[in-house]
Amino acid sequence: MNVSRAIARKTITDLGINTPSDLMYLDDICWALGAFVQYEDLDGAEARISMDDEQAVITVQQNIKYPARTRFSVGHELGHFLLHKGKQNNFLCSTKDMQDWFASEAQKQLEVEANEFSIEFLIPHDFALPMIRKQKPSWSAIHEIAETFQMSLSASIKRFIELSPEAVAAVYFNKSVVTHHFRSKSFEENSFWVDKGPISEATFAFDATLGKTPDGMMSVSASDWFKVKPWLEDETILESARFFENLNFGVSLLWVNNSKLLK
After folding, report:
1. Sequence ranges of the chain with CATH classification 3.30.450
2. 83-112 confidence digits (pLDDT tens)
3. DSSP structural state of residue 55
4. Nearest alpha-carbon partner for 3 in 113, 78, 107, 86
5. Rounded distance, CA 113 to CA 256, Å?
6. For residue 220, which phi and psi values (nearest 5 degrees)?
7. Using one digit for the tens of pLDDT, what is the confidence trace for 56-74?
8. How confident is the model at residue 196, as a pLDDT?
């Protein structure tokens, strides 16, 4: 567990937050921690924070359409306050910063750390784990996380993948190629890796780009998604895909529940 997540868990404990409903009072929680939250029109940013060692003002774009996205932005800025005071007094954070999980540059790494804090603070491990452990990978399970914690689908997908005991991955793609993916611990331990590049026409991800979204997890050849031993190329995994036309990206859930493919 990294430092960002450790501090998020400690903050949850210190505040005596015991249920997901406690987290619905996010602005009040920030106030208790020394950060005042306000909502204004921001030019070229989704949120910003100005702070010193003791207090902060968090400003969030008031025209964000989705309350769950607003919550993540507040959590992101609170992360800057609790993680980065003393390093930098001001952060101006874009939509891209809120979606960054892989940056290696020093400055961008601070945004990754704030994202790690936000997801751990707003979908706490101890609350989410029991829910996820009893669920098979599915869109309905992810929507339950989103609804329970009032979080975005994107954050809920990542959290489900992180905590699922199954060999599962979320693969992000646009109209033609895979852009990145998140893997569960079991998916990673089995050395499954989805390469960036063209989407196989045999996958449900490809179908989703054409507007076809079948219900439930459906069988697809494992080799259409990642490399397998030659004698296992006919083995299948389960997939369910969604494409969000207004956002120009899609997500495929991959679930390896085939014992022949698992170590």
Report:
1. 166-256
2. 999 889 999 999 888 888 876 666 689 999
3. -
4. 113
5. 30
6. -145, 150
7. 999 999 877 788 999 999 9
8. 95
Helix or strand run (H / E) with residue 56: strand 56-61
Beta carbons of 114 and 87 less than 8 angstroms apart? no
Sheet holding 56-61, edge to edge: 35-40, 56-61, 47-51, 90-93
What DSSP state is assigned to residue 253? Answer: E
Protein fold of 166-256: Beta-Lactamase (3.30.450)
Pair 122, 71: CB distance under 8 Å: yes
Angle at CA of residue 147, ends 142 and 148, nearest 5°: 100
Q: Which amino acid is at 236?
A: T
> What is 3-124's CATH number?
1.10.10.2910
- Decide if 14 contacts 8 (C-beta within 8 A): no
Q: Where in the chain is the domain with CATH 1.10.10.2910?
A: 3-124
| Concatenated DSSP letters of 209-230 | HTT---SS-EEEEGGGTS---G
Strand residues in 118-248 grouped as ranges (E): 167-173, 177-183, 197-198, 218-221, 236-244
